[in-house]
Description:
The structure is a single chain. By secondary structure, this protein is mainly α. The chain contains 19 helices and five strands. It has a five-stranded parallel β-sheet, with helices on both faces. Strand 1, helix 1 and strand 2 form a beta-alpha-beta unit. It starts with a strand and ends with a helix. The structure holds flavin-adenine dinucleotide (FAD). The site of flavin-adenine dinucleotide (FAD) has 27 residues, from helix 9, helix 11, helix 14 and helix 16.
Amino acid sequence: PTALLWxxxxxxxSDHPALLAAVDAAGPGGSVVPVFVxxxxxxxxxxxxxxxxxxxxxxxLDASTGGALVTRTGDPAAVLPQLVAxxxxxxxxxxxxxxxxxxxxDQAVERALGxxxxxxxxxxxxxxxGRVVKxxxxxxxxxxxxxxxxxxxxxxxxxxxxxxxxxxxxxxSDDRPPPPDLGDVQLPPAGEAAALEAWHRFRDERLLGYDxxxxxxxxxxxxxxxxYLKYGCIHPRTLLADLAAEQGSESVRRYTDxxxxxxxxxxxxxxxxxxxxxxxxxxxxxxxxDSGPDAEQLVRAWETGRTGFPIVDAGxxxxxxxxxxxxxVRMIVASFLVKDLHQEWTLGARYFMQHLVxxxxxxxxxxxxxxxxxGTDASPYYRVFNPITxxxxxxxxxxxxxRWVPELRxxxxxxVHEPWTAPGGVPAGYPEPIVxxxxxxxxxxxxxxxxxxR
Length: 454
Ligand code: FAD
């Protein structure tokens, strides 16, 4: 028999339960056809860094299947039944998709396949979204109790990699879309081998310093695995199995927590598919936001890293330069857009999704809701990040700012986060601050108070 393995966000061969299921279904003497479908509804709207990274991951996956990967273009509900008929396949195997569009699409594919089963095995998460619930069966609203229950629930050991896989290599492919030209943008190397190498290097060299290092954007303190996790070049189970061997340190606990955040946000989206767009705190829905040509100009300054607030500008330039931003700085730039420039979080979330290589609906949009104070979890609406004190605290020697904002490279560290206090004033070519942070903070607090009083 022939079984199809339809790859989506699981672009690897190790620790891949759906691959094992496909090999099983093919049985002795059978074959597995690996397929990827370029679906216009998903591929088209992805930003260029994600499209490029995905194409590069597919090239790696193709190589590791000995060139067997079949690519087709179109609506999966039309393309897959056609391929099943061409190959007389007995089943189509996938890793379950928990996102709102993915769930609808998979139901449509399932209907279109008729008698040929769409078999879902595993998910992109340590614990599949929807599985961890409170004792009364309702979903968690807040991270900390979710994470506790998530640890108690536990997860499977990594699945063994089948070897060899009986790939069938003679199936016609459609042309792949041309790779977007990203100019000077530096993406991480794509694919499963690169993901494993990045993980091993982090685990062996930096994991034990993670608790200290994770908040200093000027150092290489985090794992930089987010794009690999997004596309499933590596599964969180693989990481958690290694972490279990290192138990006991605060850094290991902290890193495990970050993987729990990833699962938590996917869980929230599972229970509330509308939360990618709708406020999780509906009472804040009527907030006043700024619009008009002046506001648009301020947004342009934010987008291009020319706000005159060095840590904000460094973050936005990192976004354009690496399609990535350090987590601490994501919070700072997001807070600045929402609370200093009075823009709705959805605008920033869209901009991030266009430019991030790890752009993920659940982590990104809920990360924005968290910063905006509209999310499920406990972040208070009145917390407004001060870009100057945040810069001084988390980038004390100014190395992050100097890396991304060359205009400030010659400044003494004590002026880097407030260049207007330097003896010679703001260096030539760098903007004066576009707003008065203390004033805008108060404007934000007043607007929050007004909407809550309604
Ligand atoms: P590490 O610190 O090494 O963490 C390891 C992994 O844990 C990450 O790769 C990621 O998968 C997960 N993780 C860590 N922090 C979070 C978090 N707060 N929420 C969810 N998962 C987390 N992460 C994305 O993967 N995609 C996004 O589109 C995204 N958008 C964000 C937008 C905003 C406004 C904010 C505040 C955060 C966002 N994050 C997003 C979360 C976080 O910033 C990134 O996951 C992290 O910076 C990736 O770098 P790393 O792999 O070195 O992280």
